Amino acid sequence: MPFPYAFRDCKAWESDGLTLSTTSNEACKLYDAALTQSIAWYKDETIGGLPDCLSKMLKEDPDFVMGHVLANGLELMGTARSALKDKSFSATFDNIVQLSKKQTITEREQLHVSALDFFAKGSFPKACSIWEKILVDYPTDLMALRFAYVAYFCMGYQPQLRDCVARVLPHWGPHSPLYGYLKGMHGFGLVETNFYDRAEKEAKEALALNPGDAWSVHCMAHVHEMRSDIDKGIKFMEETENNWKNCDVIACHNYWHWALYLIDKGDYEAALKIYDDKIYPGCLSFGAILDYTDSSSFLCRMEMEGVEVADRWKDVSRLTKKHVEDHVLLFNDFHFLLAALRGKDDESATLLMNTLEECVKSPGENHNYTLGKELGIPLCKAVIEYESGNYSKAVELLHPIRYQIVLIGGSNAQRDVLNQYLIHAAMKSDNKSHKKLARCLLLEQENLKPKSCLIQRLKKKADDQLAN
């Protein structure tokens, strides 16, 4: 269904205090439509969906600076292309900078160009500083908010993820067309900072405004996951599925959350069915990195539960193979390395490690390269040791950095696979102290998720090991 309001032309954008430097009303409307779809995770068939919308926008005005910033910024945020490794993609951002200098644009637009240029170079904190500067003066600048939000997520900056929305939300009235979506964004920030009751309230209010808000569904999925309210989570996903199942990439991710509930319950057959019917087909349809990392994470969790996943690893490894040299996010690197090793693609695993080690030698201002030496390399080496059967060494590498792992990005639910990875390494280690550590870690996890059947299963296994 189309969005229930008219997209803004040049005059409307100016009236809202967000002047766009183009004379094309159609380009302005398409910019609005594209930005709206990116926030709503929704494909508006009446205007051809997001890719066609962006393409038409730039055809209407090839020199539309903010149009180029939006189109290329969205691609950059998807992390499927590296502006540092892909020379043609890198040239695009240089061209945007040059285009901005050839015409008179507003100070706000110039700041957007600078922020995107920093992000493309991997200088995420500097980019966020500029987007935050924009939001101080222009709190309804949705692109600045969208990009800052994604960047904070990529860096694992959880309070900033929450607060960047909290600061601007009062400037959006309840009657603003996208107000509900912002509440869902704020709700997710609250989940990530452990305010589960407030997150649930925000998500429910957003869904009352728009039941098809897939991001707010996603927020609720996290609330149930973090509370280990597994049956409530499954019921919620079942009851709302028709509202979000066509929301492309985020729908696949919501199905991933549903599958996690089933793994926790021990219903592995049902979890595999969701993977085979929904998650992996999404990898093939959309080619989104989120789907690739979700697939890697899902298969790893299943195998840690002792479930045979057949040749599914090879399928995922074939998809991630072309990205092992990207090194856009350490979060991605971990999942790509796991897919390569379990998919028996040692060549890709070696290439990933060699190129990552080269990147961290001269990190410059690149945020992830800077983290690489103290965090990324030990994390990846721990994976290699684990997959080689050297569990004791994996524990020694992974345990000291466990509280820094948040900085690789992703959500608490996504990074939980690394908690499980460490626990399994400790249980498999020949070192008795590591087995004791495993039980300590499980007591910690039980405190956070007292109703988790998965944690109870692991705790019993750890107890049995110590008793023998």
Automatic annotation (TrEMBL):
Taxonomy, superkingdom: Eukaryota
Keywords: Repeat, TPR repeat
Gene3D superfamilies per record: Tetratricopeptide repeat domain
Signal peptide: none
Recorded family membership: Belongs to the TTC38 family.
Protein name as catalogued: Tetratricopeptide repeat protein 38
Organism classification: Eukaryota, Metazoa, Chordata, Craniata, Vertebrata
Primary gene name: LOC114658174
